[in-house]
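Handout, section 4.2: multi-component inputs.
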Amino acid sequence: MLSRLKSSLVLVLALVGTAALAAPAVELKSPDGRLSIAVSLDRDGRASYSVSRLGKPLIAPSSLGFLLADAPKLDRGFALESRTAATEHDERWEQPWGEQQFIRNRYKELDLVLREQEGLQRRLGLRLRAYDDGVALRYLFPEQPNLKQVQIGEELTEFNIASPGTAWWNTAFEWDREEYLYKRTPIEQVGLAQTPMTLRMADGVHLALHEAALVDYAGMNLVRVEDRRLKAQLTPGSGGQPKVVRTAPFATPWRMIQIADSAARLAESRLMLNLNEPNALGDVSWFKPMKYVGIWWEMHQNLSTWSSGPTHGATTANALRHIDFAARHGFGGVLIEGWNKGWDGNWVADSHKFSFTEPYADFDLERITAYASSKGVQLIGHHETGANAANYERQLGPALDLYARLGVGSIKTGYVADAAQAKVLGSDGVERYGWHEGQDMVRHHLKVVQEAAKRRIAINPHEPVKDTGLRRTYPNWISREGARGQEYNAWGSPGNPPEHEVNLVFTRLLSAPMDFTPGILAMKTQQPAGVVTTWAKQLALYVVIYSPIQMAADLLDNYEKHPLPFEFIKQVPVDWSETRVLNGEVGDYVTIARKQRGGEDWYLGAITDEHPRSLELKLDFLEPGARYRAHIYRDGPRANYTTAREDLVVERREVGSASRLVLRLAPGGGQAIRFEKLAGAR
Amino acid sequence: MLSRLKSSLVLVLALVGTAALAAPAVELKSPDGRLSIAVSLDRDGRASYSVSRLGKPLIAPSSLGFLLADAPKLDRGFALESRTAATEHDERWEQPWGEQQFIRNRYKELDLVLREQEGLQRRLGLRLRAYDDGVALRYLFPEQPNLKQVQIGEELTEFNIASPGTAWWNTAFEWDREEYLYKRTPIEQVGLAQTPMTLRMADGVHLALHEAALVDYAGMNLVRVEDRRLKAQLTPGSGGQPKVVRTAPFATPWRMIQIADSAARLAESRLMLNLNEPNALGDVSWFKPMKYVGIWWEMHQNLSTWSSGPTHGATTANALRHIDFAARHGFGGVLIEGWNKGWDGNWVADSHKFSFTEPYADFDLERITAYASSKGVQLIGHHETGANAANYERQLGPALDLYARLGVGSIKTGYVADAAQAKVLGSDGVERYGWHEGQDMVRHHLKVVQEAAKRRIAINPHEPVKDTGLRRTYPNWISREGARGQEYNAWGSPGNPPEHEVNLVFTRLLSAPMDFTPGILAMKTQQPAGVVTTWAKQLALYVVIYSPIQMAADLLDNYEKHPLPFEFIKQVPVDWSETRVLNGEVGDYVTIARKQRGGEDWYLGAITDEHPRSLELKLDFLEPGARYRAHIYRDGPRANYTTAREDLVVERREVGSASRLVLRLAPGGGQAIRFEKLAGAR
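Output:
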């Protein structure tokens, strides 16, 4: 054994995590001066970064670099070749639709370039950004003679959390990727995890680890190596290929650390959107946020089937009935699943049989879309692929053209398949097996969005690639699934527990819209527990879970039967000018107020886990001096997520910005409020 | 989203870990009936296995199967096609050298074949074995039309530990693979780990998770996904290739779970050897276990260098001096590092410059080996490769031929390089970057051993592939490193703490011999703490750590200066007929007694961590009625691993099998005893 090499390594390892590292090569502070991200080089020329808040370490020195499949690893022997001066940026940009109309994008940024001092003398760039609500870095692979094609075997980025805390996380590399219940553990018990992962430190500071702008790269997962040291594990390449293959120059996705003083502030952060590129599509006013109903829950309730035959759900008659209902109650869209040929076999093994242009014989697509148009309603398209992206891409042009011709403005896509069983069309044209978040599938999802945009169609993928804020750049990427939705309450074992949605707000939903499909009123389902929320909580979810398309997921009859709660579902908007997270703790409770875009009313949603809550609120988000009629949909005195879910009280009172409200949430309950601005009240 | 698929998955997940699984398809009990391994199929035809002891679950239902890079995954839709009846085997086999001469190999075995019921109808076999000291399974890929070449993307085997406990483990996928300090954590805090991993359950049952017979496959690491669920992560393929590429038929390595009632019984288990194939080399009496000295510690102490020039350690004069010393004191070998051209650059980046046939000009190889032979001493060869296996393989024939001609009977090889930076020659002849335990390097190590065997040369690799018991099949694979050895006490930061060797006994050393290089007497080194053991512990290590070659690692002068401890080092054997682990707790202390092969004496070594111990021993391992002179090398009254390491007391007393001894071990101390059988005492 060789002491020179071994000992230098050992010293390096010992130094990491202590203050004994060389002085930072580069440090960047946030505009408010509270956050700092620094990059250092040790005596072996290994780069690491660290993050602190008010001088206190949040991320201890953490590795940077890459294993390459066909070249020596890129992680040491570096010296700082150049750096730019830190520049400060402050702009305001407008979302065409969203949870907030105008977003401030204020940050400091600098680039640095490392160069190997020996051997291939390759260069690796880093771009650092510091915001008041977090920091981020991305790798830049410059054009250079000794690194043209980059075959990444693994990214070596680590997140070495500096102090103990609690983590909320979800397992990675499992079946359907994101559809698991979130876990709450000490950081030291994190296993193999997806991002975003949320951390609460002992002093109440909250972090979320995630990535932004995942384009033509593999999705990042985190594995805890030891202690609190988390390490990137990129999603494997399809067909046993390297995890990422790119040609320099290119930039990786941002590795992003959201940082906030509280859970509520974390949920208000727009860091991920700010890290993405501006709108690349121009005018997207052709997409209108909307609520919708659909032929969907009836299949989940085993009342009809996706497959053809006497139980087929997607019949012309059923479609027309839903269109009538939508028109009558002001819904913009009707989703119909199971309309196209391919549903009669094993959806995954026979996924190549899905046709995206041929309706079943009992589904008169032309008549249905014409009827919908005549009623001012849109058919919402549906493309289940069984994760056979290759089959879908071969049909993509005609399939989108068809919908475009018929006035279908948005499509729900689906990618049901087991782990690593997506059928992927590589950039070389070869069909391979791949993971849902491998580079080839990441490419596929963006391709669908781009092709759809050309036809003024919006995309809402289920079993999707994770959201990394690309809706800023491609605003027709309107929503997605990517977590356990309502359907688990139909047949899940177990269904979603009362804390599920409160977990989502501070984890999955940090990364943006989700097509959760709330609004179930018939709480008994196929599975014994049913929907374990109160009615008031189902209503509150329309405010709490942001999405520009929101389903009223229940059977139409149930809405007809229950006009009181339905009234709120009909009224609640899906597009907002402002959002305030009024309070909240991860997994416990949260209250969110949002102001209707293009209107003066505010809406509020509060939800809790299995524990009752009494939440005192100031209404200081309301316009000072104005008067509002609060339409309050609250848990009744007996309300409870197991025994009295339908105990809903609706009451009205007048309030102003100086008012206080006490929200009493039942176990598994919630509260939804419309603050209707009263004319001339000032 | 699609309920049929999603819901069936969710149900399956909910059932795993409960008793609600279908009745086992196959169950196999150990010969003593205490252990059981069972394979079950759920309603989706997914196979899992579970393990119990006395009816109590040890391993809860755990997944089986494979992701394939070029075909649908192989993990479900199975039915049991066939199974063999359980057969019982009971044999005794002899080790040509070892810690124990005769080993009983008693087990039950059965094979089963699963067949996919749809689609490709592929077959996957499983071979189960149940021993009294553990269970094991391996996958069998039969020859079949729809699975000829098998490209494994990942092995899906899990180890779902049924109840809480403590784990001793070491991180995987780090720098030099195995050279880290073992960690002790709750099972729920295991991260990304190598095997063997040792677990102690609340009831005192000990498990070790490892593999046996790693041949032409990738090494297995374990990642904790969540809770106590560990999952295989095979070492990646070189150059971004699939992790394993094989042609059916073939069998994977054994996945093995050693099970014992105590730490001591665990350390006595020979399960791994029993799972390997018998000796494939025939007579290997040409390898003689031996102790050796060498030109090695002086480089670690910065007194000389591997590289050439005025400080070069491997000079003819120095070699002759060591040969004289070895001959004078009865050592069989002299290791000399730095003798060959290639040491003057960066050993890793310039690893292609290593020549294995050209000595430096100041090292007269022919004269040295001739002189050694004349003195009855062997030169121990040295091949440092810088992990450039490709360069080594190109020179392998001539390099081994040279040593064979010169009478060199064993070679220490070395593979220093950073993670995934081994330069590997694939079976396709292409040179790639790879991990130390990827399939290509696994192939390389065995190739070196096989080529060496043809020339009657034994191999002792450092920075090796892990030991999986292949010394049974290839008894010229005599020892290896694969853990933090003594040299960390020369320059490590930190060095090896007092618990290190006690951890090794119950973790790394479960998997067999280690060339640890004990016997340092000059306890001050380059690093501030020095060697943090007492002298008595250094002596005890010769008994506690088994290896058929053991170094007296210190500078020759230090042995000349300290004849008292040196006496034990000269006397202690390196080949044994019996081994008894008399007591021990992982990481705390252990006492091992071994009987000299071909002699009547017993030797005993006891070591402790930083805590003093008083261990009462029965000597009932001694021959009843016989009398022994106990030569006791014990910690003196002031002995302590920080302040009085050299406080050694040597005393003699007569004992028999009915005697009791109380061993008093100092903090960081130990005790070494030779039980010299007295003639005619019966």
